[in-house]
Amino acid sequence: MKTVLAATITATTAAAFAITPAAATSLINKDSRGYDIAVSSSSGGGTNRTSINGGTTKSGICSSLAATCTIVVEGVGEIEVPGSSNVIIRNGELMED
Fold it and tell me: Which candidate, 25, 18, 21, places its Cα nearest to that of 82?
């Protein structure tokens, strides 16, 4: 009975990890100033416009289920990343984390 229970727990735990999606894209602003941003993803839904304050992080700005996410930071530039990657603004430049 213990062997069956242990096997069931192991299988359930493995299944939970297998279906857990990767983390969604976060935008990390290492600069002291804020920026206006626009985010669109390959999964559709149009373009979302928002802003990010200096020294803050916006979590989940693009779904981890999206193949790609395009982030436009006004006055900085544009970057396209997989939906599970993070993006950093540092010294007025965009980079994938």
Answer: 25
